[in-house]
């Protein structure tokens, strides 16, 4: 807990001395940004960080809940769980009510033979928040969770206060070739083989070599291996593969958020990305930034697909600053109708021009 408190103090100091933009950062002026509000800090007990459970639609949903204040929902990526946020929750919970679910098919949540599409996950997040009495929240989504957060904002704009997308999926087709491979038939056998005696040692040696060679994949390999370790049995592996195939095939990502990014107009949105992301290329960050009116982009230099693991203090300070200096989205049915009628995705969501538009239009909208 002392370590978390020190990181918190460092984060506040970073915000206090931050003049606006720094090296490696890309900030767009946002009329919704406000002066930093005074906050009341509180300690977070270990009991608050323990997993809790709710049964929704007959399935057990695991989640972590801690803190008091404006709701902040942390949505993990594919194969991951709420444990990925464990180091950050004590800091964030000092000023927020933090909800970190294990998505269905992940972590300690049930893993049925079910719909693992991005839209289904957005529905699941809504239903869990409803059972917890939370009507609206700021959503922080990592990787697949970023796509889920964006989908949530599209399906339930009245319940979305802000969006923070971290190395989010659903922007471009490109994705790590390993994930394309796992989407193919026979992937179950390949994942099972990684748990055979001796295989973990061989893979570990390969990871160390990639790190010594300073490859981008070497940056992310330890975290990616942790995801494999989180698939201990056939049920977990089946859920992982079903989720992956809902968003990735042999050609790459099969869903896109770009065709409706213009709907984020008026919603405070921040994009956080590592410039050495080996899973979702950093070029996607610039494409999403251009497609989202008034969005803010922050690049973590030297970080891979998990920038919040590489530099948790900076991540916490950015989230705190962003939520403190922006007003929640002021949603109205009339404004939503105008955006749908007048929005021009053809010009706003094609950062790469006609070719990008044509390629993205071949994919399923989320």
From TrEMBL:
**Organism classification, top ranks?**
Bacteria, Bacillati, Actinomycetota, Actinomycetes, Kitasatosporales
Identify the GO cellular component terms for this protein: membrane
Gene3D superfamilies annotated for this entry? alpha/beta hydrolase
MF terms from GO for this chain are:
hydrolase activity
Q: Which InterPro entries match?
A: AB_hydrolase_1 (IPR000073), AB_hydrolase_fold (IPR029058), AB_hydrolase_sf (IPR050266)
Q: Where is the composition biased (Basic and acidic residues)?
A: 355-366
- Show where the AB hydrolase-1 domain sits: 70-312
What domain of life? Bacteria
Official protein name in the record: 2-hydroxy-6-oxo-6-phenylhexa-2,4-dienoate hydrolase
Fetch the Pfam families from UniProt: Abhydrolase_1 (PF00561)
Q: Keywords in alphabetical order, please.
A: Hydrolase
Task: Region Disordered: list its residue ranges.
Answer: 342-366
């Amino acid at each position: 807990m002392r370590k978390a408190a020190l990181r918190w103090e460092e984060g506040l100091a970073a915000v206090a001395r931050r003049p606006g933009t720094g090296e490696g950062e890309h900030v767009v002026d946002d009329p919704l940004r406000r002066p930093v509000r005074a906050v009341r800090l509180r300690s977070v007990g270990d009991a608050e960080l323990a997993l809790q459970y709710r049964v929704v639609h007959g399935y057990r949903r695991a989640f972590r809940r801690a803190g008091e204040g404006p709701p902040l929902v942390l949505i993990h990526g594919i194969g991951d769980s709420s444990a990925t946020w464990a180091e950050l929750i004590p800091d964030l919970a000092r000023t927020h009510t933090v909800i970190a679910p294990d998505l269905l098919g992940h972590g300690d949540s049930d893993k049925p033979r079910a719909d693992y599409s991005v839209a289904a996950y957005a529905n699941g997040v809504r239903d869990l928040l409803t059972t917890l009495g939370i009507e609206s929240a700021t959503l922080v989504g990592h990787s697949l969770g970023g796509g889920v957060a964006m989908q949530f904002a599209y399906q339930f704009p009245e319940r979305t206060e802000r969006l923070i997308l971290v190395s989010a999926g659903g922007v471009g087709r490109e994705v790590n070739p390993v994930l394309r491979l796992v989407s193919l038939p026979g992937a179950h056998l390949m994942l099972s083989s990684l748990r055979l005696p001796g295989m973990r040692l061989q893979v570990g040696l390969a990871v160390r070599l990639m790190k010594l060679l300073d490859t981008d994949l070497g940056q992310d390999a330890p975290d990616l291996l942790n995801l494999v370790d989180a698939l201990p049995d056939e049920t977990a592996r089946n859920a992982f593969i079903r989720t992956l195939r809902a968003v990735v095939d042999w050609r790459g990502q099969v869903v896109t958020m770009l065709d409706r990014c213009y709907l984020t107009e008026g919603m405070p949105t921040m994009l956080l990305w590592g410039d050495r992301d080996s899973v979702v290329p950093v070029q996607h960050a610039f494409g999403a930034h251009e497609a989202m009116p008034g969005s803010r982009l922050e690049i973590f230099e030297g970080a891979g697909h998990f920038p919040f693991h590489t530099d948790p203090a900076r991540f916490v300070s950015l989230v705190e600053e962003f939520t403190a200096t922006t007003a929640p989205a002021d949603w109205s049915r009339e404004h939503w109708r105008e955006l749908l009628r007048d929005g021009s995705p053809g010009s706003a969501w094609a950062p790469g021009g006609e070719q990008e538009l044509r390629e993205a239009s071949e994919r399923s909208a989320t």
